[in-house]
Every structure is written in C-alpha cells, then in structure tokens.
Amino acid sequence: MGNIVKINNLNMSYGKTAALKNINLELPDDNFIGLLGPNGSGKTTLLKILAGLITYYTGEVHIDGQPVSTYTKSIVSYLPSSPYVNPRLTLEQLINTYASFFPNFSREKANYFFDYLHLAKNTMFSHLSKGLQEQVALSLALSKNSKLYLLDEPFGGIDVSTRDKINDMIVTNYPNNSTFLIVTHEIHDMESLLNYVVFIKNGEILLAKSSDSIRSGNAQSIEGFYKEAFK
Ligand SMILES: Nc1ncnc2c1ncn2[C@@H]1O[C@H](COP(=O)(O)OP(=O)(O)OP(=O)(O)O)[C@@H](O)[C@H]1O
After folding, report:
1. Domain that holds residue 140
2. Which UniProt keywords apply (predicted)?
3. ipTM for the complex?
4. Looking at ligand 1, which residue's alpha carbon is closest to its atom 27?
5. Going by CA atoms, what residue is nearest to atom 17 of ligand 1?
6. 11 Cα to the center of ligand 1, angstroms
7. How many A from CA of 6 to the centre of ligand 1?
C-alpha cells in the first residue's frame, strides 16, 4: 500500500480569505476516505485543487507520485457538488458524449449504473428530477476508470432509500487499487463505506485516521466522534 495523495505545506486563499492553511496530508490508496468538516472549512477547495481546477496555491500537491498535471487529471474523476451536465441530451447521448471525450470512460459501466438505478436511457436529462439528475451525474463520474475519485457531496439530493443502493453500487464496481475521497455531511449514511476519515476545520486538518482506529480508540461511531470533535 502507498499513498495516492501527498500534500506538503499547502496554503490557498481567495483574496484575503484563507481557505486552506498549511495542509500536510497523506491519503492511503485503495480506500474509501471521508473528508468531513463544517460548512466553509475548505473541503470543496481541497477537492478542486486535487482535480486541477484551482492552480493558485502554494505548497506541493502530488497524486500518484506526480504534481497536479495532465497526467493526474487523466487518472482523477471529479464529481462537483453541483455537476454540470448538458441538459438537452438524453442519457444515451450523454454516454456517447462522455465516451468520445474520456478515453477511460466505460460505456458498460454507465449502462450498468443507469439500469441498476432504473434510469431510462431515452430520457432527456432536463426532464429528470433534481435527485435523479444527481444520480446520473454520479453514475457518469463512476463510469470513468480512475485511480482517484473525488466526490463532492454525492448524496446531496438523493433520497435515503437510494443511498444504500448507491453505497453498494460504489463498493461492488470500483476498480482495484482506486481510492475514493468523499466530501459528505451525511456521515451516518456513508459510515459503513468509509474506512478512513479526514477531519478539516477552518482550513486546517484536525486528524487523518482509519475508521477502525477511531471506533476502537473512542468506543463510538465516526458520526459520534465527529459531533464530539466539532461541538
Ligand atoms: N469563490 C470563492 N470566493 C471567495 N471565497 C470563497 C470562494 N469559495 C470558497 N470561499 C471561501 O473559502 C472557504 C472554504 O470554502 P469551501 O467551499 O472550500 O468550504 P466547504 O468546506 O466545501 O464548505 P461547504 O460544506 O459549505 O460546502 C470559506 O470561507 C468560503 O467562504
């Protein structure tokens, strides 16, 4: 086992607002990692830096041993918290578009995910409800064979009964040796999936530990420990 992400002395500001403060962090590969923290703590900013969308920062950010670059972008799949998907395309057309844009996109997976979630492929994206649109965006992100998946609030508008189904979908279909870094406020619903967690507050890392060490060391769930840490 190695580290898929290594970050040294990362600082990032939006003008005068410091969003990330001297971050040092290593993320072990082959894990489901929760990036957890209150609103405004810097989670989305960190994901955007890893996705290569924010480049104005100081410090070093390496993914799979390489600085953020065209290579790292090719092995990362990023799901923003408000994904943009062309609303006038049907799901079938979206599959075709993604397949032509991304060499690592798997049509088989996208078809499988849409069937699994009962999303009809002849439906136009704009005709779906917000929650169903989020299911489509998540399915498309998961259909790229990647080493690192960055998912920003994947359960945002998705109903509780579908969340377990999606957890199962993620666990059963992820490529070997890939890592998920998941931003979520739905700790309870994702707890069974996460085997490593990072707590972030006011742009600073509070802890980065395996879920088992938190559960055994503190005799409580990650959600319980989170509430204690941030109260
Ligand atoms: N485009 C922007 N311009 C100015 N400040 C920003 C911008 N985006 C984020 N910030 C600020 O940077 C800090 C970190 O924001 P970020 O969106 O990374 O937090 P977050 O942990 O993802 O929050 P949330 O849980 O609410 O989504 C906050 O203080 C926020 O107000």
Report:
1. 3-230
2. ATP-binding, Nucleotide-binding, Transport
3. 0.98
4. 39
5. 44
6. 14
7. 22
